[in-house]
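Page 42, continued from yesterday. The earlier attempt failed because a stray header line got pasted into the input along with the sequence. Redoing it now with the clean sequence only.
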Amino acid sequence: MRTDRRRFTAGFLAAVAGPFGPMPGLSLSSPALAGETFRDSAGRSVRQPATATRIFPAGPPAAILTYALAPEALIGWPRANRPEEREFLLPGIGDRPELGRLTGRGNTTNLERLIELKPDLIVDMGAVTPTYVALADRVQEQTGIPYALIDGRFEALPAAFRLLGGVMGAAARGETLARYAEATMAEMLGRIAPIPRERRPRVYYARGPAGLETGLGGSINVETIEFLGAVNVAGGTRGGLATVSIEQVLAWDPEVIVTIDRDFAATVATDPAWRGIQAVRDRRIHLSPKLPFGWVDFPPSVNRLIGLPWLAGILYPQQFPEPIRDRARDFHALFYGVTPSEAQLDRILAGRT
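This time it went through. Structure tokens are written below.
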């Protein structure tokens, strides 16, 4: 594995240059804007910090977004990265401490601890709803720390890169990542556009060791599946994550199953309860890669960009016959600053840890 932290933070790795050109060094300061305000994704007026060298991520999606834009500014992670995850992140950054989280399941950071950390900016990436607006306003008022809400929808990723990149003094880097996201999305949509709707596969997204947790229609957890025009069999009901019965999955009879759970992927083909499902009979069960972060939704952040062409190859193999290997290598170099070795790519693509 080739790691080059200096070139990642001060310029592009060779793989990054591509059509976007070289990236200038990151100053992570915006003295011309200090004391002014910016509008976050919720339309809130947030004070522009004079420097953005210490970012507190409110949850995992914000941590990955911040890392991709300016890794040195990330003061820690909502959950400490495991050794197998740190292997694919920059030394000295992937192993930064566990901070807990302000939002999502199991929020564990209190305001006293937050103030002690003295961040320049709090970043939250996800749903921009009244609940999260109220939380951001309350935390900002009680701590005096600027708090930016970033729209976490998959299609909003280019805007997220540009918004936070500008706030952090990393506008050039943000523009590069935004253009990568736009190009990837446009390419995928362009290549599937000629496929008639009746030839779009019916997909079930299986989570958990039993495979019975899934994403309902419009859920952030299945955004990339739905973005690619596949039929989310659980999409008839709108919502987030839900637990369903095996009888319901049998009734849906999906053609493709995508899962993030290794145990489920290893056992579903021999489980009598699942034997009658078309995807199981046809052996179209696919385990999502997840190093250092999941390719479908675990968590739903920047990492989903490499999952998009991976999913396209699974759902539309005739339109996407090329291997994902080179894309994965270049994505890791650009977004994580680490170029995986061939053996590491093998592990990533196999979904192993």
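Notes: Residues 250 and 276 are 7 Å apart (CA to CA).
Reminder to self: strip header lines before submitting.
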